[in-house]
Amino acid sequence: TCPQCHRSASLDQRGLRGFQRNRLLEAIVQRYQQGRAAAAAAAKCQLCDRSPPEPAAVLCEQCEVLYCAACQLRCHPARGPFAKHRLAPPPAHPGAPGGGGDGGGGKGAGGGRKLPTCAEHDLENYSMYCVSCRSPVCYQCLEEGKHSKHDVKALGAMWKQHKAQLSQALNGVSDKAKEAKEFLVQLKNLLQQIQENGLDYEACLVAQCDALVDALTRQKAKLLTKVTKEREHKLKVVWDQINHCTLKLRQSTGLMEYCLEVIKENDPSGFLQISDALIKRVQVSQEQWVKGALEPKVSAEFDLTLDSEPLLQSIHQLDFIQMK
């Protein structure tokens, strides 16, 4: 069973040799091999100092220079900037068969070359085409009755018909290949545009986030200024109270010490001369310590509350707006 078309075929005593030979493919392979051999013989190293130059072993597709094996090792090592260069076999010689010219095969294919004979009847040439078996046949194949009931057509007509069909199919493939090449160019341009747009959007995102950070930094400076003013105000109030209380305490302490010295005196007449004035002074001094005078006017706590939760939520919800 053929693994490609899944058709079953019976083998006769000839075995695999009983199958039809693909003569067209054989001719193509032969022309290709002859072309490669002629090209290898004709291509010469372009950097050789020898006369004549050595045959070329490789072609650098980037440098477009032919090298022999020795010149390649000396002038084109596989390292450094040459490591990424692609080395290919030497190109086909233009005059060689299959090498880009007419190849000398045009006339041979038409008239000079011997026509293929039937695989079953060596003395007969193919002249008809069996549509049912999809193979060329000779007149003897038809006379023996193997293809008598099959649909048989002229070999030349079917040859032209199949060539026309293949050419038409190739035109369709060629059009698709052209579209594919244009599509590849479009995709490569798209890659470049995506790269450029990605860099632009990254720069825009960084600028926007930096602007937000700058705004937050400025606002932080303003809030710190308010906290500093509040701290300085509280410190000033406390220092004023400290100075005022210290002054009053010094006055009261001095008055107390003076009164204690007066009380120690044993002269009633001298004491009574100044006692009324001292009593009034002590009463006035006592009245200065009114209710609340010995209480701080400010507290150590700062009555400032920063509500950062809405801003924090906004930062967490910061995202791109995409319309798809």
From TrEMBL:
Gene Ontology MF terms in the entry: zinc ion binding
The UniProt record lists the keyword Zinc: yes
Origin species: Pomatorhinus ruficollis
SUPFAM superfamilies to which the protein is assigned, alphabetical: B-box zinc-binding domain
Residue intervals of the B box-type domain: 43-90, 113-155
Protein name: TRI67 protein
GO cellular component, one term: cytoskeleton
Domain of life: Eukaryota
Endpoints of the signal sequence: none
InterPro entries: Bbox_C (IPR003649), COS_domain (IPR017903), E3_ligase_FN3/SPRY (IPR050617), Znf_B-box (IPR000315)
Gene3D superfamilies for this protein: 1.20.5.170, 4.10.830.40, Classic Zinc Finger
Pfam family, one: ANCHR-like_BBOX
Record domain COS: where: 263-321
Matches recorded under PANTHER family: E3 UBIQUITIN-PROTEIN LIGASE TRIM36-RELATED (PTHR24099), TRIPARTITE MOTIF-CONTAINING PROTEIN 67 (PTHR24099:SF21)
